């Protein structure tokens, strides 16, 4: 059937009108939701505040006030999505709505990743970087001292380098003392978000991007659980007001989607950034090792130096192998958690669309809370202690390269 330009233009106008209506409906729904729930939010927030320390209360308030509007907007968008075609050439479709929802979920995840725990990890990483720089300076000073004169009127002499070396060694001791004190606090904070680790496991956690992922997931899980408790209270206090109960429950479903969104982000990061980069590092180390062996055969007088290089390259290759195994293990665990969350979200959304009794929603939120609590425990890789100090330092070097690759 041929369609004339007038008919096509009319269809476009009708579609634009329909989308304007959907958008207006969603905006109206959102505004009514905000007006109707503002006092309930305030009540839930005040009850939550009483159980938190001042620092925790400030952090949770930032999360609560930032995430809730995005959960509302996400739910409104999900409602509008049902009215859109699955695919369309010249009009808005479900793919467009999904892209908007993904953007909202990304914003929600960024807010859910907020926690005082981050400041400890950031400071520890900064101190570790300072230690690495100080060690590099020590290596430079020691090499320069070899060629320095015992006395000199113009340049640095051996005594000058001795003083520089002593100063940087003192810096390292100071950095290490501060780092160790913060690590103890960091370990306690991790226990507070459900990650009970030994000191050796904390070391591995801090030395790998696997640990970065795990801490970020732990923070998000902790905030999701805290928000879920408040949404559960709001659902329960809605009583026979099914419309309000469904609204809060729908926001809870969007919260689950944000949690699943973060898992997908971690999976993608491992697959597209970390694994390719660690493979590149290992490949380059093997190439260097082959070149070093060839040099050793050609220059036997340099055997001692080249043998040391071979040992360093072998350590990099072994560290990359172990690191890759950790990444694959975490990738599998996160994928399994994503699959579990996806099934829970599908069932929860089906319930949202069909439930007729508000009391059922409370039971379902409580059941899902137990699922969330069990997921983080299953996502902790088997964190094995480092074999030795050299391996730990090699892991730290690899981690710095992976973090730079991530941008």
Chain-wise SSE layout:
Blueprint: H1 5-49, H2 54-81, H3 94-112, H4 117-147, H5 158-192, H6 199-207, H7 209-237, H8 242-298, H9 303-354, H10 358-378, H11 389-406
Classify the beta-strand content into a percent band.
under 5%
Portion in helices? over 70%
Q: Order of helices and strands, N to C?
A: HHHHHHHHHHH
Query: Number of helical segments?
Result: 11
Largest sheet, strands/sense/barrel: none
Low-confidence stretches: 1-42
Give the CA-based shape.
elongated
Look at the helices and sheets and give the structural class: mainly alpha
CA distance, first residue to last residue? 53 Å
Radius of gyration: 28 Å
Description:
This protein is mainly α and about 400 residues long. It has a domain at about 115-190. The protein contains 11 helices and no strands. The protein has helices spanning about 5-50, 55-80, 95-110, 115-145, 160-190, 200-205, 210-235, 240-300, 305-355, 360-380, 390-405. Mean pLDDT is about 80; it is low at about 1-40.
């Amino acid at each position: 059937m041929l369609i004339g330009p007038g008919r096509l233009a009319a269809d476009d106008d009708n579609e634009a009108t329909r989308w304007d209506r959907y958008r207006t409906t969603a905006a109206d729904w959102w505004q009514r939701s905000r007006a109707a729930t503002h006092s309930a939010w305030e009540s839930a927030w005040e009850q939550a505040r009483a159980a938190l320390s001042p620092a925790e209360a400030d952090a949770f308030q930032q999360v609560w006030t930032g995430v809730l509007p995005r959960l509302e907007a996400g739910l409104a968008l999900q409602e509008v999505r049902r009215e859109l075609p699955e695919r369309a050439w010249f009009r808005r479709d479900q793919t467009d709505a999904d892209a908007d929802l993904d953007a909202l979920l990304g914003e929600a995840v960024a807010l859910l990743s907020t926690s005082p725990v981050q400041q400890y990890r950031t400071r520890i990483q900064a101190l570790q970087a300072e230690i690495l720089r100080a060690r590099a300076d020590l290596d430079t000073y020691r090499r320069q001292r070899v060629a320095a004169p015992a006395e000199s009127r113009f340049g640095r002499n051996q005594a000058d380098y001795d003083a520089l070396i002593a100063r940087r060694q003192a810096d390292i001791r100071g950095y290490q003392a501060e780092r160790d004190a913060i690590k103890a606090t960091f370990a306690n904070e991790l226990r507070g978000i459900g990650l009970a680790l030994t000191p050796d496991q904390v070391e591995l956690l801090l030395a790998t991007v696997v640990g970065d992922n795990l801490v970020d997931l732990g923070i998000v899980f902790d905030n999701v659980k805290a928000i879920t408790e408040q949404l559960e209270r709001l659902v329960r206090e809605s009583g026979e007001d099914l419309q309000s109960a469904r609204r809060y429950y729908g926001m809870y479903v969007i919260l689950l989607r944000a949690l699943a969104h973060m898992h997908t982000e971690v999976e993608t990061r491992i697959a597209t950034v970390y694994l390719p980069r660690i493979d590149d590092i290992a490949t380059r180390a093997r190439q260097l090792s082959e070149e070093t062996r060839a040099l050793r055969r050609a220059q036997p007088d340099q055997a001692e130096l080249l043998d040391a290089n071979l040992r360093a390259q072998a350590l990099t290759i072994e560290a990359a192998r172990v690191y890759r195994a950790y990444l694959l293990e975490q990738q599998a665990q996160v994928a399994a958690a994503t699959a579990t969350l996806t099934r829970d979200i599908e069932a929860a959304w089906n319930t949202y669309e069909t439930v007729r009794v508000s009391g059922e929603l409370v039971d379902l939120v409580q059941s899902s809370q137990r699922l969330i609590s069990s997921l983080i425990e299953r996502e902790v890789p088997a964190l094995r202690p480092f074999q030795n100090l050299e391996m730990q330092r090699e892991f730290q070097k690899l981690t710095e390269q992976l973090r730079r690759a991530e941008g």
